Hints:
The structure holds two protein chains of two kinds. Chain A is an alpha/beta fold. Chain A has helices at 45-52, 84-87, 94-102, 109-122, 138-151, 168-185, 196-202, 230-235, 237-251; strands at residues 2-12, 18-29, 34-38, 60-65, 68-69, 77-80, 156-160, 188-192, 205-209, 216-221. Chain B is an all-alpha fold. Chain B is built from eleven helices and no strands. The longest helix of chain B is centred in the C-terminal third of the chain and has 40 residues, at 159-198. The radius of gyration of chain B is 22 Å and the shape is globular. The chains are: A alpha/beta, B mainly alpha. The A-B interface holds A 50, 53, 55, 73, 75, 77-79, 81, 83, 85-87, 89-92, 100-101, 103-104, 132-135, 152 and B 145, 147-148, 150-151, 153-157, 161, 165-166, 169-170, 172, 246-247, 249-250, 252-253, 255.
Amino acid sequence: MLKVLNxxxxxxQDQRNGTLAVSDLSFEAYQGEFISIVGPSxxxxxxxxxxxxxxIKPSTGQVLVDGHxxxxxPRQMVMIFxxxxxxxxxxxxxxGNILFALENRGISHKEQREIAEGFLKRLGLSDFAAxxxxxxxxxxxxxxxxxxxxxxxxxxxxxxxxxASVDAQTRADxxxxxxxxWNAYVKTILFVxxxxxxxxxxxxxxxxxxxxxxxxxxxxxxxxxRPREQIKTKGDKxxxxxxxxxxxxxxxx
Amino acid sequence: xxxxxxxxxxLVALVLGFWEIGCRTDWIDSNFxxxxxxxxxTLMQLVVSLEIVQQFLITLKRVVAGYLLGxxxxxxxxxACGYLPRVYHLLEVTVEWLRPMPSVALIPIGILLLGLGxxxxxxxxxxxxxxxxxxNTMDGVxxxxxVLLNTGRTFGFSSWAVVRKIIxxxxxxxxxxxxxxxxxxxxAVGVIAEMVASGTGLGGFILNTSLxxxxxxxxAGIFTVGLFGYALNKLFLLVEGKSLRWQKGFLAQxx
Lengths: 253, 255
């Protein structure tokens, strides 16, 4: 579904100086997989995601989605950003925000509304359709952001530390919310996080990146049962083992 | 909110009270500063005789036309400069040289080019109005959040759609700021231009009445300008409130 080949990104400051953010990364994601990307702060995770999303051009290397080269934001991918406050449009209601994802598809207004309302209903957000984003709590806003990304209808969803700005309790709720969404809609998800527990809890695989410039330290299969459950899964021996392994990887740099 | 408004009105009443008493007790020379009661009476007479109403309508026409013209030019230019930094780099020197010129000082040039009459007034007002709108619009466009822009792009929107659907609404609060400042300028510059060049409109009325020593009438004219500004501002706030309903809560979020 998604192939990242020898991706490298260097930010040029001037003729001689550049900051190498990502250096020679390759991995593959299969359809319907949930993959987390973890690594130390500032290691270039966001840069990597932006390159994959087609929002930034890599210095070298390629990204292929469904066999097609990514050369700008592709139809098959959508990115959900870290700061929901800045990504939801404050001048539109919740419904208006969802509609945004549908406005470019050449379908009638009526149909757009129906689809948008459908998503809101299935994600439990119907009550807030006429509200403005700032009237909602952080957790609800992030759900709206996820609903909006989902409504776009792409195969691949990229998420850049989407739960970083909420408290631990809301985080747990959002994690389970995301898993139920993923179950229902079967998307390929690339999920960047600095929280290793979260990564292991949610994913099929965890890609571990090194310090900047990021290279692949490991690509670890998470062989835990689904459905995952906050208490049961996190107490599982395997969970602890995998998670410790990842911690060690990152710490040993 | 209501309490401070009430105090505001009471303050005005207090000042007017002192003024009236000062005149009655001859502490203030009524030849130079007539009592409030006389000014109010004179104003009512001028309204009834339609003398001041005619002049008001002339000023209104010029101010509205000049404001709309200046604001439109300022908006378009400001948007272009904010969206395309190259355009601004091209225009920067010219803009920063022209901007500080007092609009009223341009009247002689205006007279040469346009003669006396409405086009002159409209031009001067438009000139003065365009700058605040220009600067605020440019600022607004520049400060569009990068995450919002990236969100637009990731949803596959074209550059034009991003401008229309994201940059325009996002910059609106800034634009309104500029529009509001320009509104005040439009009235002030309009009246001054009339005093200097026209002899008609409220500015002309104030000048003529002062020259013919119709002192209470002159103050009535000045009051009318103030009332005009107050009314326009209130109207503006009404429109702004409706258009920017979303902004109040967004800012109050305190992030």
